[in-house]
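User: I'm curious whether this sequence folds into something compact or stays loose and floppy. Could you predict its structure so I can see for myself?
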Amino acid sequence: MKAGNYFGTEIDEKWWRRYRGPAFFARGNGEFWMDEHGVQFRKQLTKTPLLIQWEEITDASLGKWHAGRWNGGHPILLVTFHRAGQNLQAGFSLSKDWEEMEKLASDLRKRTQP
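Assistant: Here's the prediction. I'll summarize afterward.
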């Protein structure tokens, strides 16, 4: 598990269209991890983590902005996925180190390749 921040989930890469599925609605600090189910993030003071299943993920990349928020020039992990006919992209800030975040994005891309 890695401490971090969840920036939100955009619909169709439009920052003003936010996905409001179970456990996805609120932004906040919490813990990020990957396991056999997929990518998970449990926000502080909540019991249920958000889950992006491996088979839903289509890409992982880095950016400086997400869901209308800037991360001070530090990297944001962008996890692109497809769910219920919608193209979604979740953003997570887990480290200020670009090299470390690129490695994480690369690992995610490798896990989701067919």
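Summary: Strands lie at 2-11, 14-18, 28-34, 38-43, 50-53, 57-63, 65-66, 69-70, 76-83, 86-93. The longest helix spans residues 98-112.
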